[in-house]
Amino acid sequence: MTQINQNFCRLPGSYLFSEIGRRVSAYSQENPGAELIRLGIGDVTQPLAPAVTQAMTRAVAEMGTQEGFRGYGPEQGYDFLRQAIARHDYQARGVEIDPEEIFVSDGAKSDCGNIGDLFGPDNIVAVCDPVYPVYVDSNAMAGRAGHYDPQTGRWDRLVYLPCTQQTGFVPELPKGRADMVYLCFPNNPTGAMATREQLKAWVDWANERGSVLLYDSAYEAFISQPELPHSIFEIEGARTCAIEFRSFSKTAGFTGNRCAYTVVPRQLEREGVGLNGLWNRRQTTKFNGVPYVVQRGAEAVYTPEGQAQVRQTIAYYQRNAQLLREGLGQAGLAVSGGVNAPYLWIKTPEGMGSWDFFDLLLRQAHVVTTPGVGFGPSGEGYIRITAFGQAEQAAQAVERIQSVLG
Question: What is the C-alpha R_g of the chain?
Answer without folding.
Answer: 21
